[in-house]
User: Fold these one by one.
Assistant:
Number 1:
Amino acid sequence: MNAQEVSKFVDDSLWPRRLLHVPTMTSYPWTPGDVYGGHTRPNYLAFSYTWGRWRLDEEENPSVKALPVQGITWRMPRVHPAHFTVEEFERTIRALPALQPYMFQVDFVWLDIACIDQTPGSKESAAEIGRQAKIFQNAFCTFAWLTSHAEPCDEEYVEATYRLEKSISEIMSEEPYTSRSVEHDFANFLNFLTDDPWFTSLWTLQEAFLCPEVIFLARNGQVWLKGNPGEEIPRLKEILMWIEFLTSIVQDSRRNFNLHSSPEIQGALERSGLIGLLLGSPMVLLSVAYHRQATSELDRVYGIMQVFNLRLGISRPEADTTKRFTLAELEDELGQELFKQYPVMSQLHIFTQIPDKGKGWRVGQYSKMASDLNWDVYDHLKSSRHRMTASAQFSTTLVDENLWGSFTGRTCLLHEFEAAWTAYDKLIDPMRVPFEIALDVPSPRRPVDDRQYHLETLQSLLREHDDAIVLLLGCCESTWALGRRPASWKPCHAVGLILIPYADSEVRNGTYWQRRGVVSWKLGEPRYPAEMRMFLQGETDSWTATSGIFG
């Protein structure tokens, strides 16, 4: 864009700054009226792929050409042909209009290297990176390019599906089976689906979350999964729904096999990011981001911020693009924004290693999903049939030039929970788990049932820290309104943050708390007496108003 065009472009516009016209391979800038090369508000496709790890330096492999695109002022990046050749790249881009499944002509594609200025330090580039959510969510159709798959995989998909379905059918029958068998087959199926660099890229993780209806393409430019004749092309959303369906079958079987606690399956879900996509939880995706491949460490925040609808660092419209942010600064900025917009969700993770002192208040390099909590804790945050009411308020405060978290809310001694659950244990359905606890830096899980595991974890923590407290993060309600009847909201579950005081020698100017994990518990158990139900909702004298600093 020239200076005049930039000045007219409204940053919160739903339209991209540029679009690629495929028939002429020309990148057209936005002009007033949402016009691109004479085309007003054209439908456009979005193309998701990964290439940064294979980018060639200027002097490397000089014979390799860049994608030929007209109408741009920047030098197009070149990619190592082992990942994909420029001929394969151009052929795939040119094929996109014919591959989209709708009965409309679509001649424009949003392609990052053709539509974002690749000049280092470009203000336009930084701003457009902060607008990825709008660009992808408003695309007519989105394609993802799986370059490690040379051709469509229908036969392999059918074979992997058959093995998994056979294993699951054994669970539902009287035939002998081993949990190891279904665990192994399920993990193999997930690994088969996600065995491509696209599932290890930071930027594509964000794009997958923004566009669950993405269609996968093989390296030859053909649809990777075609499905059965006469049926619609399976998209990421359908694949996720199918995985969720199979998961529910195993979970609900009378064998009570805990699929989610399987290390092999959990690993496959977390490595690929599918666990976050299944739950629709951006918080889960953020923890996955730290284990994905990134060209720059700053991309661990920049490459995921749009799932929270945030613009941080140099992507802010008013930002000085010459400023060089550190990863710690971006993580602090992200943590502050999550405090404001997602106070409950901001704490629904655990640390696999102890974070730096004072940094336990926000997600970081060692964050991951709190997999010992029921998936409903995450799922209900986005469900229209559930509503979460936040009970704690968060902010930040400087302590010796280090940013710590601070809280105000209701707290209760953790041993009060143990006493209550022990006292009323016989009133709880033996098939239900009344509470779930997920600790930071967890010990290897013992092969016991869920109920026993969580009780032992709670008791073990109290033996070490009998002064541990629970900060009530929020209470969730659910509704199942029918027809025109008004919604009737009922208590569902609550979540809390476990805190322990720092040693006296480390405490200055009041009580400083160290984050130790998260806990969730069921509400509305009909067999509980009224006092127990009130206690679990934070409405008895056991809870006190507390303010403190934590990290």
Number 2:
Amino acid sequence: DDDIDEASPDLDSQIVFTDKVRLQLVSSFTGKDQLFTRLSAGNIGNSFQDETGTREGRFAHDGFGDNNIEIDRLHYSFGLLDGNLKVTAMAVLAAHHFYAETFNAGLNTGGGATGGLSRFSERSPLYRQGIASSSAGLGLNYSIGEKFEISAGYIAPGGSDPSDGAGLFNGTYSAMGQLVFKPYEKLKVGVSYVRGYNNDGGSTLWGGTGTDLASLGFSESTTSNTYGAQFQWDVSSFISLRGWFAYADVSLLDTGDADVMTYAGALVFPDLGKEGNMGALVVGAEPYLTDLEFDDGGDSNFSDDIPLHVEAFYKYQLNDNISITPGIIWLASPNQNTDNDDIFIGALRTTFTF
């Protein structure tokens, strides 16, 4: 039997103060196109992944260390076919959520510290497949009338790397197709498919979300077929329901096969208390391993407990430039193991926008 360790280290409570700064430059050559350049710096790193042993609960605005300034996003977009087709070329930080509908307005802010507290609450982890600071790629979004929308894209985390096993087409990649149906103004539903290849130890399989086992880092290379369904229903101007489900059929090359799942439901209250405020409750399970079979017939021993993620926050818009967001994240059975202690993450996020 192959025992796979999913235990998390013993943890002590700790209080930290972190920062992240972004300078976003938006320019145009024709008035109908957009060149988006972003400089970022911060000191939050990977949140507390090293301490907890899991990617669950990572903050949406993490990812930088030592407050070094970097160009962390460089995109150029333009329209064709009377504006019905939008083309997005991504040279730095390519990701599927930059060109495709994600069914989570207000919470999905691209780590901008005005939406969801965690990476998981921003959007389905399906859209994070292949994302990395070095990712490059192309995304297309085509509107068919007012009710249908088709998106397709290809991204490669090693797109700018000329070494063997990298580049646009010889290394890790993620290709997505999505169909969106909007039966009426307040409701939209979608189905998605992502085909991926991963040779980087699983670091980009779920984009910094999920349990340690879900990344399948114990396999040198994987191919995956991920199927997803999402919806957003704006019940009224003050209540919105969202949800998503994704299932990944993963082949561990020369090793075996695995299944990974993730799902969530969200209740969002736009303009709660006054215009610009927002309250939200997100409940679900970050990506976790549900089945693993080895080609040699050996059985895998691992815990497949559901790693519950519960997140609640309230963004208070103090004025046009400052918002304050208190919130809490509760991780039950972290690393999909009930033997691990629950993790509670409290946050008080202050965002300055100029």
Number 3:
Amino acid sequence: MKMSNNFKNISKAFVGVLTLSAVLVACSKDTTEPIQLAGLNVINASAEATKYDFIVDNTKANEKDFQYNSQLGYLNLYPGLRRIGIVEKGKTAFLLSKQETFSPGVAYSVFIADTLSKRTFVKVEDDLTAPTGEKAKIRFVNLSPDAPALSLGINGAATDLFTGKAYKESTAFVEVEPGASINFEVKNAAKTVVATLPATKIEKGLIYTIWAKGFNGTVAADSLKMAAKIYTHK
């Protein structure tokens, strides 16, 4: 498999009206027609030491090491049915490959979840509509393969932001008050806190995803234990 490396990251948050001028030839005349792109962010939530290259069709999309906990940031992507996959860094044999449909003007996050023969892609749409007023937006994704259904709340709050999300499930975005030091808590059905994001800064006007990662059971390294992580959509 021959691969090229000519993807360019979108420098700012993907916007649905982004277009790319493409020259199309028809009836021996050159015409220019705008093509509305999709946006694709890829997050490595696979709790293992393997470094990947991420492939769209036959194109390598990452320029830096793509390891556990890292993300690519939004990529320009022509819409339609595209083959996405991962290979071990510097190699060509697919560890995971799947055809996915991407719609024009829509932003997506694709998570690489689980490990070894159980690796899978989890694709979710990203609502990048700006929060209203002085608010921020947050959603939650459960990407801990052996965890029970999980909830996300804020320490001291009367009710949780999200409840009962099973492995690979995600929530819609909700608006929240910004804060300089917010303590997020991931809980199981018994309301026991199983992971935290302490002293987290949430800024007005920004959009965030919090995800549960790692394994709930016994693991060989502390870095692979269940934890929570946050990223900003930009």
